[in-house]
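quick one before i forget lol
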Amino acid sequence: MAEYPNPVSLLSKFNADEMVRFCRGALDRCFVGTAPTLGEVCEAYGEKPCVVWLSGLIYDLNDFVGQRQQTPQQCDSLAWMLLDEAKQYKLTEVMYFFYRYKIGLNGEFYGGVNSHKVLSDLKKFKQVQGEELDRIYKEEAARRDEEDRRQRKNIAMKRETYMWTLGWRALYGDKEAIERLEAAYNTEGFRKTLGVP
């Protein structure tokens, strides 16, 4: 929030025109990126800028649907209700919520944007958020596991090479190599006795 001295500079970065850039091909960033939550923006700048921002997203959706427009009063009322229900979501998650209408994942509107449907779909969005976060964290865990496996394999190969080198040095009478091999053998034997891998 320190980057943005006022709400206009913050919310203009996350305006409806940027929705495709934030939501298309960068879905992970929507859910685990650094965008602030609506609640954090409210805390920093008050609720009014958030309502104006949400109204902008609603107007944009109305334009996209291309049917009967909501009145400004209906848009503002819906924006206030969305704010009450969506403070825990990041700005990018809210944008993705609206983006889902545009790509047809939230169903269709008949006769224009329906406030009741939007609020109802917002309640279902918690499940979408959970599924996306679960997918992101599982993919991240799989990446970490693969990296750990690769590192363990490298370490094992280095140890194998090291032991092989010690073996050859010991064959040619290198006392230090003999001592190290004995220590390694004793350590491995002791670990096997204890059942430690």
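fyi The longest helix spans residues 115-171.
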